[in-house]
Amino acid sequence: MKTDVVKPQGIFFNPNRLVVPLFQRPYVWSRETQWEPLWQDIVRLIEVIEKHNGDATHFLGAIVTQQVPGRLGSLPAANVIDGQQRLTTLQLLLDALHSELERRELTGLAGRIRPLIENPIDNRETGEDRYKLWPTNRDRPGFVAVMSAPTPVDYGAVMPSRLRDAHHYFAEAIATWLGADAGEAERRAKLLVPTLTDRLEIASISLDANEDAQAIFETLNARGTPLSAADLIKNFVFQQVPASEAEKAYLANWAEFETPWWETNISTGRITNSRASLFLWQWLVARTLVNFPVREVFTQFKYYVNTVEKDVAVLLPRIRAAADRYRSIIEGAERPNGPLSRVELFGYRVGTLDSEVARPLLIWLDEPEQADIPDADRKRILELLESWFVRRALLKAPSQGTNRFLIDLLRQVSTQPKDQVADAVEEYLVAAHRTVGYWPGNAEVREALTGAPAYWKYLRGRLRMVLEALEDDKRGYPDGKKLTMGPIVRSKATIEHLMPQGWRTHWNGDFNEDEDAARDQIVQQLGNLTIVTQTLNSSVSNGTWWSKRERFLNSDDVLITKDALALVGEGEWDEEAIAERTDQMIDRILEIWPVPAGHVGPLAEPERAATINTVDLAQLVSSGWLHPGARLKPVPPAFANVEAAVAQDGRIYIGDVAYSYPSGAGRAAAGFGVNGWVFWALADTGKSLFDLRADYLASLGESDGVAADDDTDVSEGAE
Hints:
This protein is α+β, with helices and mostly antiparallel strands.
């Protein structure tokens, strides 16, 4: 290893090629974060040199290159191990300066820049040899287009790219700084050229061909724009692929990861990663059956390759095949129309609950080692786990530790004969009596839904998924006699109250104050909810029962709504009908997501209750999850004029009166008993105290792998 402090003149002047390996990420520097600060630093440096210190320099950072053996007489070449963003930016800056100097006919100064951006013609064997820097394959077309554009550069005619934009920015910045006066521009240019070529300093680490470039690369990764786990893994893997095979292997097995779909950022809890990084973590968890947080995926991947999958030529196609299956399931689950395969339906439904936790399980099920599991058993495994996920969500069971539980399950069942895996999954779920893994029984689910204000209690997307499942069950999907009308459109329907939330206008029953408040709760129950594929206008939505009934009879094809109409026939829709329909819908939920005969879930109830009830507002405040002075608003619209505040000690103040518990404050606000954790929400975000507490509990487990409730859809479909 050789370390020097060099200038752009020293890096670029001699004929050479700096090659950015194709497996490195593309050019990502931007105007606000890098281009403008760099140009401002250059302008300040010139001012210092001119007015204060003629020997001043500016340090740009470091680069790492590794010599590439070449044949006698060919251009010397080196791979850019680290610093490609910096070197690419310098080339764009120098070329923009060269173009501007030529445009102003400052040919002498332009001639000093040309050797830094182009190799001499006599040293070239191919067209690529023209360029001092040869970027990664994704950047090559854009780089060539702008670096070879004739002067003056017509940026509108150059193919769009981030590199073109950088070149354009520097060209405009240079032109503005030089100014319109020819004499002054030449004087300034004579300062700018030597400043760029001789006063910018770079720490250059040059490696011999046999030195460990990957170790250096990882050590320096903390500088500049951080690399994702996928970037680090890519560099690690392709450092081990022979140079002659690298491009073919990259195009066949990795290039897809650098498309917009895979580069989309996905949030799990409070952690955001690219979808490619997230997949690689989930794939590795599925392969190793070891539970580790996503932040450790690169370290774990290196260990896996060094100890298990040592042949990357075999490993890369395996990853690509798993990635293709992974994408197919996700994209299938996102289709709003038409029937889904069982795995796609599982992906959609569980995705509304905790989208990423189940991914390693689906990857594991699709790996070659599980190929002999019978199709009927695969379907049964998905049905068992979907029931486990949905029932726990209906009870709002704590989700912390779910990753670990599912990996323990896979580790257990992976030792079983392939025709016994489904039985092993069922046995494991039935036997789980810890808080994190228990499978709620029928009685628990019924208790959780009976009389509960479902519209307030659950996120809209999750509640809509349950109503969609009830509707699809009536239509014969996913099993049974399918009707010609097809399944309900997914994720598009609006949740509608049969008896409207604003019932007082047309549904007044001459109630007293307590009865009014009770009805405000009843209209939020499951039995009063349906879905509509075409949103009702406000006059119908909040109109009389008879106007809504006529609209549903004549213009709506939702079967669960037809069932509600049939329930009362020619009669009125009232509290009794809501209670009866709630009970009927619960019956269907228990059949759609069943448990094995004889399974009873409440064995875990004392532990679950103890886990939740040990957390109070004071603990949320002291841990920083709730700030003293935070404003609270009731979730029910009927109490919209009430406001409360949280004190340092966790008490809730309504005016000057303090309440020790959320339910006490809720009773004071509502005039009757309520669950205060559900009743109160943060005024600024709308997140209920219940969901805030659930997020806190989740953080005590493996928060990297737990997807917290997404409260952004709480208002979706609100009437």
